[in-house]
Amino acid sequence: MVLNTLLAAGKLFAGIIGHSHALIADAIESLADVFSSIVVWRAMVVAEEPADEDHPYGHGKAEPIASAIVSTMLLLAAAGIAFNSAHEFFSGERHTPKAFTLAVLIFVIIIKEALYRFVSKEAKSVDSSAVRTDAWHHRSDAITSLCAAIGITISLIGGKGYETADDIAAIVAAGIIAWNGWHLLRPALSELMDRSPGQDVIDKIRRTAADVPGVQCIEKCMVRKVGHRYYADMHVQVDPLMTVQRGHAIAHDVKDQIRAAIPAVRDVLIHIEPSPQKR
């Protein structure tokens, strides 16, 4: 957050005195990064709070909510950058960007790509959609800076008559940011709608449960993601003649084996059913 604030301030100052609309747009995107990092940070804190009477499944939904907010911010930032750049493009005012703005952008691209790689690695380790979205916010900033650098380079090399390359670069960057925003918003909405995770997760849960002694068949297996944790509901078929106590013990074994095999599974709700009698 501190680094993003310094980068945004530096880009905004350099963009104003260097007459670069693309660099100013890039600075605005970096300021959005600061706010998005605050949103993700607080969401992670809330998501780790234990379950309570009002939230018996915990507070994990705070993560996809934060991811949706940050993704929406990306879309809004893209719309704002595109509108401002289009306005400058058609306004008739032409200023060739200063050469030093290119050096600023090269420095920013290196820093932002490094931040993306660091945060993306953390997102994979905790399987968090919010952190993954925040990582892409850094990469979108690097992409914006790259587009701005290309536009400024064309303006500097082309000279008079090529000043609009800076505005065109900003519009292109806005399109890329908007695509990333939509790409990241979809999985966040899916998680909020309790969409099933990947089939590989469900298959592994099924196989683990089926291998427990006493389990004859897994009739149903429904899994949903809450934050970076999974909750599973299962229908397990057992011998119809066994005692309730034995069926209860098998259910506990199934739950323990699944949680041991897949640590990301927070809880498993098991419904014991009698398997069909063979004739």
TrEMBL record:
Describe its membrane topology. Answer: Multi-pass membrane protein
Q: Where is the Cation efflux protein transmembrane domain?
A: 2-193
One GO cellular component term of this record is: membrane
Query: What InterPro entries does this protein map onto?
Result: Cation_efflux (IPR002524), Cation_efflux_CTD (IPR027470), Cation_efflux_CTD_sf (IPR036837), Cation_efflux_TM (IPR058533), Cation_efflux_TMD_sf (IPR027469), CDF_Transporter (IPR050291)
Report the subcellular localization: Membrane
Q: Which Pfam families match?
A: Cation_efflux, ZT_dimer
This protein's UniProt keywords? Membrane, Transmembrane, Transmembrane helix, Transport
Give the primary localization class: membrane
Q: Name one GO molecular function term.
A: monoatomic cation transmembrane transporter activity
State the superkingdom: Bacteria
Boundaries of each Cation efflux protein cytoplasmic domain copy?
199-274
Transmembrane intervals = 65-87, 99-119, 140-162, 168-185
- Name the family the entry cites: Belongs to the cation diffusion facilitator (CDF) transporter (TC 2.A.4) family.
Matches recorded under PANTHER family: MITOCHONDRIAL METAL TRANSPORTER 1-RELATED
Q: Report what the protein is called.
A: Cation diffusion facilitator family transporter
Annotated organism of origin: Pedosphaera parvula (strain Ellin514)
